[in-house]
UniProtKB/TrEMBL annotation:
One protein family per Pfam: CBS
Organism: Thermococcus aggregans
Domain spans labelled CBS: 24-80, 102-157
Gene3D superfamilies documented for this protein: CBS-domain
Top-level taxon of origin: Archaea
Membrane spanning stretches: none
Protein name in UniProt: CBS domain-containing protein
Keywords: CBS domain
InterPro entries xrefs: CBS_dom, CBS_dom_sf, Diverse_CBS-Domain
C-alpha cells in the first residue's frame, strides 16, 4: 500500500510538470463575433461544449460555453429588478450575434504554462475550459478538464 501511494505521488508530480501544449486540443470550435447565434448553436455538438471567438488572424476576442449560452435562455426570476442589461439579455433574436453574448475577457492559460498551473487556475476559478494563447493572444488550442483527466488516467494506471 505504501509503495502504491509513493507511485501515485510521483505520478502526480510528473503530471503537474507536463506542458499544456502537449495535452491541449489543437482542433477546437471557432466562431467570429459577427456570426449569428444560429451558426454557433448549429456548431455545438455533444463533443463540442465551447467555442473560441477569434478575429481573422486567430487572435482571441472572446469565449462561449454551452453553459454561457443557456443563461440567455433562462426565464427571469419572479420579482427580479429589471435593468437595461437584463432587458438586453431577454431580447435575443435570430438576428443576435456571437458578440452579443460572448465572454469578452475569458480566463486563459499561456501556451508555455504547465498542467499544474492549469489545474490550479481551473480549481480556483471553477472554469472547465481554458483557451491556450501566446503573448500576442493568438489561440493555439483549448484545454479542458477532460484532457487533464485523460492524462491522469494514462499516467496513473
Amino acid at each position: 500500500m505504501l509503495q502504491r501511494k509513493e507511485e501515485l505521488s510521483h505520478n502526480i508530480r510528473y503530471i503537474s510538470k507536463v506542458p499544456v501544449k502537449l495535452v491541449m486540443d489543437r482542433e477546437f470550435l471557432t466562431v467570429r463575433p459577427e456570426d449569428p447565434l444560429t451558426v454557433l448553436i448549429g456548431k455545438f455538438t455533444s463533443e463540442e461544449t465551447s467555442a473560441v471567438v477569434v478575429d481573422k488572424d486567430g487572435k482571441l476576442l472572446g469565449f462561449i460555453t454551452m453553459k454561457d449560452l443557456l443563461h440567455f435562455f433562462a426565464t427571469p426570476r419572479r420579482y427580479s429588478v429589471v435593468g437595461l442589461g437584463l432587458l438586453k439579455k431577454y431580447t435575443l433574436t435570430r438576428a443576435s450575434r456571437v458578440e452579443d453574448i460572448m465572454v469578452t475577457k475569458p480566463i486563459t492559460i499561456h501556451v508555455d504554462d504547465n498542467i499544474g498551473q492549469a489545474i490550479k487556475l481551473m480549481t480556483e476559478t471553477g472554469k472547465h475550459h481554458l483557451p491556450v494563447i501566446d503573448d500576442e493572444k493568438k489561440v493555439h488550442g483549448l484545454l479542458e478538464v477532460k484532457d487533464i483527466i485523460r492524462l491522469i488516467r494514462i499516467v496513473a494506471l
